[in-house]
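Input structure tokens:
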């Protein structure tokens, strides 16, 4: 008689194990727990890249627009050009931008060379991973308008 009780107990345990394998309660939570970290890391990387690209583009835009303004003038000071670049760079603090302006006269034409640098420091995923800061540089060389 004990063997029949043992068989029925084993049958019940086997039925429970099979039922547990078929049970889907909580499966979505487990799948989310497995996928969520990767999804959040990808989202952080996307935000970081967007801010990175925005700052890079902002520095290029400020340099190019300032170069266009300089071409319309007959005289300009280095400090004016540096201030113009810093004012045009959106989303980058002016004190974080290094602007070097030089003037060179070739023949009768004066050329203004603008070299701009900004050190981008990661703050989302790059900071977590430990990436080193990147220096963005932009350069433009334009002639001043000749005096009439």
């Amino acid at each position: 008689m004990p063997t029949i009780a043992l068989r029925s107990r084993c049958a019940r345990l086997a039925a429970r194990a099979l039922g547990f394998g078929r049970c889907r309660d909580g499966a979505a939570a487990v799948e989310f727990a497995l996928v969520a970290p990767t999804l959040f890391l990808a989202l952080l990387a996307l935000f970081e890249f967007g801010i990175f690209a925005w700052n890079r583009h902002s520095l290029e835009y400020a340099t190019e627009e300032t170069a266009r303004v300089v071409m319309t003038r007959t005289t300009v000071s280095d400090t004016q050009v540096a201030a113009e670049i810093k004012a045009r760079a959106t989303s980058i603090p002016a004190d974080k931008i290094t602007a070097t302006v030089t003037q060179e006269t070739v023949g009768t034409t004066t050329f203004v060379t603008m070299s701009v640098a900004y050190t981008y420091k990661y703050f989302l995923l790059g900071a977590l991973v430990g990436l080193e800061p990147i220096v963005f540089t932009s350069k433009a060389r334009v002639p001043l308008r000749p005096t009439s």
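The chain has one domain: 25-143. The two ends are 119 Å apart (CA to CA).
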